Amino acid sequence: MVTPGTVVPMNCHFTTTKAHIVLNGGTIEEIIADKGLEVTSSDPFKGDMDVAKLESLIATHGAGKIAFVRMEAGTNLIGGQPVSLQNMTDVRAVCDRHGLKLVYDASLLADNLYFLKVREEACKGLAIRDSTRRVADLCDVIYFSARKLGCARGGAICIRDGALYEQVRALVPLYEGFLTCGGMSVCEIEALTVGLEESMDEDMISQGPQFIAYMVGELDRRGIPVITPAGGLGCHVDAMRFLDHAPQAQYPAGALAAAFYIASGVRGMERGTLSEQRNPDGSEPLANMELLRLAMPRRVFTLSQVKYAIDRLDWLYQNRHLVGGLVFTEEPEILRFFYGRLAPVSDWQQKLVTRFRADFGDSL
To answer: Which among 138, 220, 256, 355 would be 20 to 30 A from 120, CA to CA?
Structure first.
């Protein structure tokens, strides 16, 4: 579907998805609605695609140059912000007018379904299963990582069109292995089936977002900069405000992740410039946001653990002036944040440890 010179419009990219598209000679165009890049907001659906920008993009390139339109549930890189059913319906209408396929990354669908239930009027009276059916009916292809949706290893690609299914099936032995010598085991498929069924339970899918909302609310109350409203997947700390003295070119979200690990033993995830890759000329594209993601999958953490993380992040915020930036010492060309190595720009980590021990001793 992606060939050299084609374009993939999307509400928000994901790192590995972008890498695959670029390696196949395509380019991405992020056309998220402007509200999606507002760090502090009360808008319930900041993951929506800008439909007018989609129409403009199609007019500029021509429908023949659009490989497909990709929507992502729970927009990972901007704070797990959901997409409304109405926005998906509007995007589907544009795709129908221009003969384009709508591809849906449903990895964070469970959280998105919860937000549809509590935030979108048209879905408040629907069962989770019915909302899922409406979302699925809008899509030509749905794919997802089962580690996020279904709580199992592996994943799935669901395809509406038989001819496209045959085309994609031919790639399975090439990239994954044949059914009898690679891919998912039967027990993993069974676990995925159970996990997907559990995702239809409102009580089940509400636990993660409720814990996240609690953490976001507590941090916001203490003046610690976080993405609002609370989204799915995790609590997202705004590193550019948290470390407003650190240059963005020194990866403040990565530095904050390292500093928070020192202060708490809690492993967060950088979602910012470090998660991007350099332009072909070697220049560094700066991300729209620099976020520390503190993921909270359902049925994993207790409230006491969340309170501990809040307490330690509060301490780190009071000592944020000690935290500096990072530089690469080993930088892979593709998806550098997986295997890259970084070093602090100064001895700030030692200074942070010294302050930590002065306040907490050897509590870790």
So the answer is: 220
* Cβ-contact 38, 113 below 8 angstroms: no
Residue 363 pLDDT greater than 80, yes or no? no
How far does CA 296 lie from the centroid of its chain?
13
CA 259, 274, 157, 116: dihedral to nearest 10 degrees? 60
Distance in angstroms (rounded) separating the CA atoms of residues 148 and 151: 6
| Cβ–Cβ under 8 Å, residues 95 and 101 | yes
Start-to-end Cα distance in the chain: 50
* Structure confidence at residue 364 (pLDDT): 66
Residues 6+ apart with CB under 8 A from 198: 151, 204
DSSP string for residues in 201-231: -HHHHHHHHHHHHHHHHHHHHTT--B-SS--
Q: What is the DSSP letter of 329?
A: E
The DSSP symbol for 64 reads G
Tally the residues of the chain: 364
Q: Does domain 208-360 have CATH number 3.90.1150.10?
A: yes
Q: How large is the average pLDDT for residues 152-170?
A: 93
115-139 burial code (b ≥16 CB/10 A, e <16): bbbeebeebeebebeebbeebeebb
**Would you state the structure tokens that stand for residue 267, as one six-digit string?**
């492993």
Query: Please, what CATH class does the domain formed by 7-200 belong to?
Result: alpha beta
Separation between Cα atoms, residue 299 and residue 287, nearest integer Å: 32
Calpha distance 294→14 (Å, rounded)? 17
Model confidence, pTM: 0.94
Residue 314 clears pLDDT 70, i.e. is over it: yes
Q: What is the mean pLDDT of the chain?
A: 95
CATH 3.40.640.10-classified regions of the chain: 7-200
pLDDT at 362: 83
Instruction: Give the mean model confidence (pLDDT) for residues 244-270.
Output: 97
- Per the CB < 8 A criterion, the answer to whether 71 and 103 are in contact is yes
How far from 85 is each of 80, 161, 212, 263, CA to CA, in Å? 16, 22, 22, 40
